[in-house]
Amino acid sequence: MIHNRWLVNSALLSIAFIWGITFVVVQEAISTIDPFSFNFLRFGLAAVLIFFFLFFTQKEKFSLKTLITEFKIGSFLGLLLFLGYALQTFSLLHTTSGKSGFLTGLAVALVPIISYFILRQKPTFQGIIGVLLAVFGLYLLAFTGMTGVNIGDLLALLCSFAFGLQMVFTGKFASQASVLYLVLSQLITVSVLSGIFALIFEPTLSLTILSHPSVIIALLITSIFATAYAYIAQTFFQKSTSPSKVALIFSMEPVFAALADYLWNGTTLGTRSIFGCLLILFGMLLAEIPFSKYFPFLKIKNQKVNM
What we know:
Layout: H1 5-29, H2 35-57, H3 64-91, H4 97-105, H5 107-119, H6 125-142, H7 151-173, H8 179-201, H9 207-210, H10 213-237, H11 243-250, H12 253-265, H13 271-288, H14 291-294
Subcellular location: Cell membrane
Keywords: Cell membrane, Membrane, Transmembrane, Transmembrane helix
Protein name: DMT family transporter
């Protein structure tokens, strides 16, 4: 366990940053390649990278027995992760990207609730306020209007629940498992399930699609940084913090995505979106900065909240 809180938070924030800035790259790639096929290749390549890293750097310690043991937990986490991506993909067929983005982002609010029932972790008053600010910020940033609730909205909400469960159970199992083996088994599961869904729902991949520059660039960037690094870092550093704080830090992803969209595509942010970004940022900081240390009168309010 790492006790340097700023190191832990910076590492987790780097994941949100990578996921956010690669959103534009992925969006461009899936205009050429179908999403399940893309995830099959993305997670498959990341799994291959981790496998060879394990094999060549830990030749004497490399153990298929350990991999099989960790696969029980890793496949469960991989199933949750796959469900999150699959439900998000299907939700976009029936609802707007704004509504899907907002409802998916509600994982930040669901994680403290799930953590209470599964890990028996009670949220702090400061943490609850931070979550509420982040949720309202997500609403301003992603939600553009109510056009009636449909099946896509329900799928997006289920997607946020799947991602929330993945974060909570990663926190539960990370300290009991070998990080690299756990992540490897998780990525293999996502890749295999994505491949099965690609065969069922998508046309056969062609060499023309696979050799398209946007697809190659997106696969290289996402498999190395947004998948292999991101999930190793999440699993390793989540040992040292709570799932609720991880969810709050990850709520910065759409902020970085909006910034990347502005820098890459020149998409301008309105006052509402900028204010939403600031609320998400402040919500994250509020949950992390020890205000009670500098303002002693807050100590009573910041005790664990009974649920």
